Amino acid sequence: MFAMQYGFDVPDAEPVRARVREIGSRFDQLPGLYTKAFLVADAADASPARYTPFYLWDELDGMSDFLMSDAFRAVVAKYGRPIVQRWNKVAFFKGTAIAQTPAFATQQFIDIPADVDLAQLCELNATDAEAMICEHGLHSVFVGLDTNNWKLMKISLWQERPALSHGAKIFEVAHLSAPALKKELGI
After folding, report:
1. CA neighbor of 39 nearest in space, from 177, 172, 176, 179
2. Looking at the predicted structure, is the pLDDT value of residue 35 above 90?
3. Among 64, 30, 63, 72, which Cα is nearest to 181's?
4. Which residues pair with 140 in a beta bridge?
5. Rounded to two decimals, what is the model's pTM?
6. What number of CA atoms fall less than 13 Å from residue 178's CA on the CB side?
7. Which residues pair with 106 in a beta bridge?
């Protein structure tokens, strides 16, 4: 499993939400896609509105095929060519609300200093993520490793607005496409 994300600051999040309502279901059958969370945040606290879809892929071929597709060309035409971040899976856990559509996401980035034992840090974050699986309303949690910038990224999807942990940002999940997950769950 691999994660991918790109994002754009936008003047207003409402047109993004309208666009997601229009195109979101097009991703419900995308080959190789485990899930795509269409993440949107309104402007707040001097931060601009943001659209930043988050993808989990079962295989690298699916991710590569998408980046070469007409769908991604349309993203580039509308917003410009983004920097595409990628993470290798450290941990992925399904919560008690995995069969429900999440409404919110929290995302946190954790710097990895050069003197920190990478294996220990990844194990600690995987253990913390696993401990979340019984939390009420948790859909799923993913921890990924970015070896270009030496950061961990933790994202969790929720049924209800969660309390924010230190350094986390909250997003609305405007739509969730989950072709591989739904097949796995028999939905």
Report:
1. 172
2. yes
3. 30
4. 94, 157
5. 0.94
6. 19
7. 156, 170
